[in-house]
Amino acid sequence: MQNMEWYNSLNKPFLAPPSSVFAPVWTVLYIMIALSLIMFLRGGMNKSKAVPLIFFIIQMLLNFAWSPVFFNMQNIGLALVIIIFMWLFTLLTIIFFFKHSKAAALLLVPYLIWISFAFYLNFGYFLLN
After folding, report:
1. Which long-range contacts (CB under 8 A, 24 or more apart) does 9-13 make?
2. How far is it, in rounded angstroms, from Cα 115 to Cα 129?
3. CA-CA distance, 37 to 10, in Å (whole number)?
4. Among candidates 90, 127, 122, 101, which has minimal Cα distance to 22?
5. Where are the domains of the chain?
6. Which alpha helices (DSSP H) does 1-129 contain, by range?
7. Burial letters for 109-124: b for 16+ Cβ neighbours within 10 Å, e otherwise?
8. Low-confidence ranges of the chain (pLDDT < 70)
9. Which residues contact 17 (CB under 8 A, 6 or more apart)?
10. What is the largest CA-CA distance in the chain?
11. Could you tell me which residues come within 8 angstroms of residue 69 by beta carbon, excluding any fewer than 6 positions away?
12. Contacts 24+ apart (CB under 8 A), 116-120
């Protein structure tokens, strides 16, 4: 469970949205991420899809690691490092997915934009707290 009391006590960066925004945004993004993966895998796996799939898995593992590190461990600095690598591996995933399915790659662009915004927020929390 996330420690919302701790989060609510933090000094917030400019443009920090209300907590109620995150669940709907992530729901839509996870649907788009799943659709992207399905489109990428359509037609089966082959050797040329191995590296993009590894990039996808890495960025998702980083995605799933961020919340426990930020909220449960309350480690804003480590969360910042995680989000930097998540951004990088998401960009790599988009680039490599594009070679197989432009639509699959484009479905990940809003996710990359959101990660960019999340980086801004994480960095702001890091500086202000």
Report:
1. 10/125, 10/128, 10/129, 11/125, 11/128, 11/129, 12/124, 12/125, 12/128, 13/120, 13/121, 13/123, 13/124, 13/125, 13/127, 13/128
2. 20
3. 35
4. 122
5. 47-129
6. 4-9, 22-41, 50-67, 76-98, 102-107, 109-128
7. eebbebbeebeebbeb
8. 1-3
9. none
10. 49
11. 75, 78, 79, 82
12. 116/87, 118/83, 119/80, 119/83, 119/84, 119/87, 120/13, 120/15
Nearest to 66 by CA among 79, 85, 81, 84: 79
Give pLDDT tens digits for 14-38.
Answer: 999 998 999 999 999 999 999 999 9
Q: How many CB atoms lie within 10 A of CB 78?
A: 14
The whole-number pLDDT of residue 118 equals 98
Q: Provide the token pair at 14.
A: 């400019």
**Distance between CA atoms of 77 and 59, rounded to whole angstroms?**
18
